[in-house]
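Lab manual, section 2.4: Encoding a predicted structure.

Procedure: take the sequence of the chain (338 residues), apply the prediction step described in section 2.3, and record the output as structure tokens. A sample record is shown.
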Amino acid sequence: MKYKFIYKVCLALFVLLGNCYTLPSPKGSPQKPEDSYPDYSDLNNWIALPSRQDHADKTPTKEMQDEQSLASGDVLYIYPTTLLEGERWNADLKDERLNKKTGIRVVRSQASIFNKCCRVYAPKYRQAIITAFFKENDNTKESLELAYSDVRKAYLYYMKELNKGRPYILAGHSQGAFHLIRLLKEEVGKEVNRKNFVVAYLVGMPVKEKEFSEIPICKDANQTSCFVSWNTYGKGSRPGYFPERFEGSSCVNPLSWKVDEEFVSSEHNMGGINNSFQFYPKAVGAGCKKGILEISKPNIPKLTVLAGNNYHVVDMHLFYSNIRDNANIRVKSFLKKK
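Recorded output:
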């Protein structure tokens, strides 16, 4: 049984490296959320801010520019799991090694997508270690609760102190999307918070079409006050682990921004990036099929592909320019309606 379990971890939805790992075994119990909330008025508790230079300012080509100083919108970006080892249930916000890895591997490749449409805000949060997603006990539940409590605190701080009535986007991948799903249910769905809400990109996490009572799925490229979601696999592949989590999951095609099952060729892909942040036009074709985004073979070298033809790690890499363009379109569409 031990080896079967480790094999599942090698397929894991949240693994951000292309290798297999024995599941970490944290010691003790997680902190209680109320014991030590991060102070988000402290700039050190943000991994990206529009007021300073950081990895969210990067662009993969000279033609793309960091336009945060001119942007009409904001994005609050929540990063995926990068805590893959150690004895802590949750990340230490002062762990510079982990913060550096998070900045280079995911803030640069994901948060930077939004530096055209938006000022980019990305809070550090006490993310749960990967183990929390593969064992169900009091410690894992508390670990996830602690991580969510930080995301919620950062959102509430952003809305009160930083938003200033600007249109805003929520974007998260993997664990980041996991916490945003709950945030949309508990906070964003409230009328006062929906007022300036543009769209949520909930990528790399199964989300049902009617997951939220107040926030519908986006059905075209211009729709606002809605969400998009997809989980990426090679053509003909399906989740081979936890398949029940994907039953009834929604899929919005990031090449057409539609919920149909038409396959869209790579000619419509404006460009993606690889693990090294190198840009490739016409990166991949894609089409939704039974709640999964199936893709053609990518025209990109140096990509992390997990077992089972699972492109989870690069869910956003493959559609970098299309997401970038779409976020800008949705902000403009939102402003036209005001």
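Check your result against the sample. The two ends are 57 Å apart (CA to CA).
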